Amino acid sequence: MHTFKVWAPKAEQVDVKVGGQKHPMRRTEDGWWNGPVEEAGPGTDYVFLLNGDEQELPDPRSAFQPRGVNGPSQVVDHGAFAWTDGGFRAPAYQSALIYELHVGTFAPDGTCDGVIGKLDYLRDLGVTHIELLPFAEFPGAHGWGYDGVDLFAPHAAYGGPDGLKRLVDRAHGKGLGVIMDVVYNHFGPAGNYVGKFGPYFTNAHKTPWGDAVNLEDAGSFEVRQFFCDNALMWLRDYHLDGLRLDAVHAYVDRSAINFMEQINTEVHALEAETGKPYLMIAESDLNDPQLVRSREAYGYGFDAQWSDDFHHAIVALLTGDTSGYYADFGGFAELGKALTQVFVYDGQYSEHRDRMHGRPVVNLPGWHFLGYSQNHDQVGNRAKGERLVHLTDAPRAKIAAALTLLAPFLPMLWQGEEWAASSPFQYFTDHEDPELGRLVSEGRTKEFVAFGWDPAEVPDPQDASTYEASKLRWDELDQAPHADMLGWYRQLIALRRSRPELTDGALEQVDVDFDEEDQWFTMQRGSIVLVFTLDSEGYSAGLEEHVTLLLGSDGGITVEEGRLTMPGVGVAVLAVNRS
To answer: Does the pTM exceed 0.90?
Structure first.
């Protein structure tokens, strides 16, 4: 027997349909309905019917949608999986090296089992945590996952509940933590039925994706709890080691206890219950350090947040692109400020936004911020999904890698960047509704035509070739020039692990110097000095102290007789011997 439950305060009648048979449900307090069904159990398919209507609706809290977003829900017994990760604790987040990946394009078969086959590679690379793009059931077989609608159901095409559990269990066996990207700021446009059950949305606010999620209006208590319970489910039932909350700046909540504070409070309570730490990360473009301050310090309690200013400073400087939001960046000064103060815009005027933006970071270590030169957004939101190495050259890509891995932040890599993967990461969808698919394709084209792109050059999201082109090509690892880039990343990661000053997160211990005209930049952290030049004619400087060349981006970089010589664009990592 299984007892079905659903929150449907809007309904006057609710039935659960199992095997073609309707079973009436009983309304209880606060708009909840429940009903036992004797013949139901793990593996049973079911749907809900509201108010006598024959439209079959999936469960808003469905644990599995084996036939997609419009199909029936299926009962899952989370206690049936044979976990082997007892006692596993993810590495302390302060020492994290995060690897962001998309299950559908990371391994050839696009499933969790395919990722399992690459875990040894990730462990040997030096990764501590893998971060999965959104996993909740979304329309079609392949997509980015940010249009999910069944938030409690792992995507069937990736392997469903058992596939995800196998991946997490095996990752833990390799010593790797697993983080998942979750989307609580909107639901996708297809298969979105939650609004039929209750006040999940409000038209008091708008988002780029339509009506805002109801976090503060009537009925919001259960809506907020829906998302909190979802977060706890991933951590408890799937043994995940943390969550990354997508675009928290899109939440609209003026409650005295903000939704972000609530969700972190409940996660902290689960930590106390399980004895496991969970890494909670926010994506935000607000440049607000309150996100990572503790509740006791009147913050929201996240462990870390993405730092786009660091990314923008690197990319604008190395590529020369000053379009869009890169208009606020492009010089050595912006990079220097990002490395020492996190936010380049921390309370001053932003040309791109035409307003004051941000707030200073004070008395917070770099551990609270993720640093990256590439991620799924910054690659995939370009018209053709170009990676950094496609926008510039290998020497500059090596500079970006050195800055990312030796900066005072938590480094995050985007799948394939470590070997300068040739495959792009393009925007792709698999909408089954032809009209919706057409609108998505046309909208994507119009977005870039407005910026001067030839429509023929913008990949069609609905074309299967766009998805296939985005898959990593693992045969490149041993080929030139990819093997050289992979070797560079391996050396940088090993260096970061071997030198405590590179993982201490102390922003006050970061010293930078640069010359905009002569095109050189230095960053010193303890005894480690990073030097790079963008001058194609090279760089040469006398060294006042005895130094050793630890790493050079090409064989022509030397330290001889107290002088560093770089024959062209490149980066060197030095060790200062103060004895």
So the answer is: yes
